[in-house]
Amino acid sequence: MLRTSYSQILNSSRDFSTAICHADGRLVAQAEHVPIHVGALPWAAQAVLNRFQDGIRPGDVFLMNDPYHGNNHLPDVTAFVPVFTGNVLRCWSINRSHQSDIGGATHGGYNPGATEIWQEGIRIPPVRLYEAGVRRDDLLHMISTNVRHARDFEGDLAAMIGSARLGESRLLALLEEYGPETAIQGVESVLDAAERRTRANIASWRDGVYRGEAVIDDDGHGARDIHIRAKVTKRGSDLTVDLTASDPQVTGFINSSYANMRSAVAMALAYLIDPDTPKNDGTFRPITVIAREGTVVWAKPPAPVTLCTNHCAQEIGEAIIKALAPACGDRAMAGWGRRFRIAIQGRNPNTGRQFIWHLFHARPGGGASSAGDGWPAAGEWQAAGGIKFGSVEVMEARFPLFFRRHEFRPDSGGDGQYRGGTGSILELVMETTEPALANTAGDGARHGACGMTGGSDGAPHHYRLLSGRRKRVLRTKETGVRVQPGDVFLVESGGGGGWGDPARRLPEARRADVENGFTTAKGARKRVSGRR
Amino acid sequence: MYRVGVDVGGTFTDVVAVDGAGVVTIAKAASTPADPSVGVIDGLGLLAASLDLDLAAFLRATDWIVHGTTVATNALLERKGAKVALLTTEGHRDVLEMREGLKDDRYNLRMAAPEPLVPRARRIGIRERTRADGRIAVPLENASLHRALDGLRRDGVESVAVCYLHSYRNPRHERLTRTAVERALPGVYVSLSSEVLPQIKEYERVSTTVVNASVGPVLGRYLDRLGDRLAQAGFRGAVLIMQSHGGIVRIDQAIRLAAGAVLSGPAGGVSAARHCGRLSRLPNLIAFDMGGTSTDISLITGGEPQYARERGVGGHRVSLPSLDIASIGAGGGSIAHVDGGGILRVGPASAGADPGPACYGRGGVHATVTDANLALGYLDGARFLGGRTPLSLAAAHRAVDAIAQQLGCGSLHAAAGIQQVVNTQMAEGIRLVSVRRGVDPRRFSLLAFGGAAGIHITDVARRLEMRRVLVPRLASVLSAWGMLTTDLRYEVVQTHVTDATSGKKASAAVLRRLLARMEREGRKQLSKAFRGSIGVHRALDMRYGEQIFEITVSLDGLDLAAADLMDRVVDRFHRRHEELYTYSVPGQEVVLVNARVAVVGELPKLPGESRTIRDSGPQRPRPIGKRRIYVDRWLQAPVFDIDSLGPGQTVAGPAIVESATTTVLLRPGDSATVNEFGWLDIGVGLR
Lengths: 532, 687
What we know:
The structure holds two protein chains of two kinds. Chain A is α+β, with helices and mostly antiparallel strands. Chain A is globular, with a radius of gyration of 23 Å. Chain A has helices spanning 8-11, 41-52, 137-145, 150-178, 180-203, 258-272, 313-324, 392-398, 507-515, 521-529; strands spanning 16-22, 27-32, 61-64, 76-85, 88-98, 127-131, 134-135, 208-218, 224-235, 238-242, 287-290, 340-347, 354-358, 401-409, 423-430, 436-442, 462-467, 470-473, 481-483, 488-492. The longest helix of chain A is centred in the first third of the chain and has 29 residues, at 150-178. Chain B is α+β, with helices and mostly antiparallel strands. Among the domains of chain B are: 76-221; 334-424, no CATH class; 425-481 and 645-683, no CATH class; 487-601, Dna Ligase, domain 1 (2-Layer Sandwich). In chain B, strands 13, 14, 15, 20, 23, 24, 31, 34 and 35 form a nine-stranded mixed β-sheet that branches. Chain B has a six-stranded mixed β-sheet with strand order 3-2-1-4-11-12. The longest helix of chain B has 31 residues, at 202-232. The chains are: A alpha+beta, B alpha+beta. At the A-B interface, helix 4, helix 8 and strand 14 of A face helix 4 of B.
């Protein structure tokens, strides 16, 4: 998928997942780059099963993206290849990939202005794209007509289905070698083993009822400081996560779909248990989730939800991890930077073609943990280092962009016994010859990544657009930003949260920070004098 | 006239000489980690003695020496490389440490961020800038460069890596910088990214260049010393260095592209395995090379080794083509210990060559795998290394007893436990390269070599349900022998971005010229050390217009003069894409990104190493003695000398087959037949 896809968001930034589900939809294995994709696919598989019941045949391929039909959000298009031996459906080979554009009112898949899901893009409920091996070209054409770059969309879709088919042929070889019954029995043992392992982990934490909350800057439509609240009950090897006290749903696109909320909870658990535990249906059996439809974590249609895989997914995770920190302090890592994306649409003077470019560079810092300082420029919590920003050289060769500066941002990591990872600075010059259009989508320009167990928060984002002599601060949720040839984006992304009491940071670690410019001399003085 | 292979491991230095008739002579000397060239000369001395020559006469009669070395690898793994500074484009000094924003394991929060080989304070931005199309946006500013160089002089930097953006397209600024560095800091080792890896994608390029800068001076010092010592001893031929990609190059080339030698050590073993597979007509082998410090495992499928386009060594990205080899930190010298949870563990710490296992009696006190093997009766203390290094059973017992006390069990159980733990780790290592990559090891045969493999191998095979194990007679020095089965190889790569589906006639002409120029360059380099038949392999890295990852399309067998060259090339690309990814998109634009030319100087092929094996007289093999060994219980096992066994003879386990340099343990249920080359072909009794 990585090697064959067309769009920058897939081949440079790896915003996709592949998975195998049981015939009944349960997750068996997932090759994920992006943790927030974990645990979301079974809901999608379930939706396809419900829609098509017994009408699934060898050679069929299904497609869907609608969050009110089991998907997480519209840009993540999901393709399903059923795997048969004879006439028996054995499992599913699935690919979910984030599209560069999904239609709707704005380019690039994110519409901060949306107040209803129809403004966010084309909605695809579960549909049959291939019928017994034959592609329904009319249907494909209907969909690709509704996105901005039909050629790229079709190229990416070919890569998605190619990768799912490759999964199918390897699964068939496995099923044939061991016999389908034996192989599927093996699957059950694998799931049970993951459950046992997770339970053993959870059982080692302190029993109790814990509470945590996280706050989103705004929804772009007037709501500020939106709260996500988690009450987590830990008893023996069971966890109950109750999100019902979270704020009611809002106008803008930070609301979560149901599937995304479930995967945010799964992601939080995955960050707390032993890292090499497989992530499958068994892993998540010890968790019970209680939530209420109509809250920001589970919106009622037709609320917009596109930002949810970043925000509020990240805050759902944050609330749960904060809640459980007293139960298992060494496992609770500090917050990673929030997402703040820019999507630019314009014409490339070198090729004459339209382009859409997504900002994946200037990653924010990773959260510190009991293991040490946070990873610098490693991204956001819902990806935790799983999304790559891609080569600057490749970007400059393919887009009318000039990366004047792309380096660490000093003084951005939250202080602590272990310091949050630094964010980044990007100075990006537009080498277009005619005006282009930009959108932003994200959060965290007021609330930085959270510190944990005594550590401080990381610095929040600070993005500006320099047009001639005019400099203005970019908000996290804007549409229709005019970008003139020669304009410069000055991007300073947030740092990760710190972990543990700053007073316990070793003097030699502080010295090295200054020597290497992770903190400036001025910043260092502030840190030391600011200590209790 | 001799050809000599030299394999310096962590514990032993193995040397092999092959004469014009293919007759093989071997020797093993203790490695000398402080200066490995001492051990090399020791080994060559022993080899000369077995040939009844003095060292000078032997070296005068030697045409060339092929050498695999772990000097570069160890410098990287142990972070003992040179003190490096990086000069890079201003505003982009963190590419190395940003690692493209990736963290290998998202869920492992206890994984600290890796320390870059060059700390931020020594990564210096230089005012300059080249554009993606090769034009200069900001000319190289001398003041900025000289400020940086003054700082480096004060800092006492030994090595300088230079990596500017888009230098693969226009290397001018990097070359100017080299001139300035050489003038300001004479004697400092300089690596230019446009020479180490002239390829688009700055992270891969900067990381590979920094690795080169880090290991280059260390490798250079060592190889210079070795060259001097050999010259003093009378050697006048060429020394050729094993490369990670399995080819060999001259010393000066090896020093210049030191990052290409980070897998120099284990590469010889892969070449040997490939050759053994051909000789024994077994196309599917798992090569298992167990030495004193580590075990290297690789796959031969369809007769060919697997390659990787890039790999991480000690967490550092090296984007040069290399053999795909997995190393695990466990070998005969690995030290056993009991961890905080009371669990027995083996490795990764090793007793190495000095002091070596406790039973060597050179001051080692920790129990190693070798000590356990001696205590279990698998090794003959008196006969070890032909009796040159007798082993102390008492010292082995003392060391193993200490482990037994911590575990609260008997000494014998502790020794058997060490054996079991290390065998489990080995089996796990094999699973990593097979099962994890969708390959069923049960369809493969195991080729066991390296001094320590023979004792462990049938138990490891049994754990994986592998039924067949081959142990070559030269098992203990097989990697050194394998180095003599390789060819001289010089690789040239050049980024050359072209649309292959438009302006085809012009692009075909440009491509022909480019390939011819690269071939000339390769031939020129090769001809410095080689006269003989030369083969040329050409390939192109290609992709569809909007993709960013290329696939390598071989041009072998394609008529470069064909008028419709580009169509044929594009056609091969579509087919390869379909093979790899189940589909192709005919009619889409196809882009050519890199051209690759490998110029190969073919060396005379080695015959099987069995020329000296005579048909042995008696049909039933006669043991040379008996030994008490412990396999679940004490057993009496006959001991055979491998040199007395002839083709067709069979030995059933429990038994021990020994030579001066290795020991093979046949467990109950195992049965070994001697093949035409004198190797043991073992059927493993599966329970």
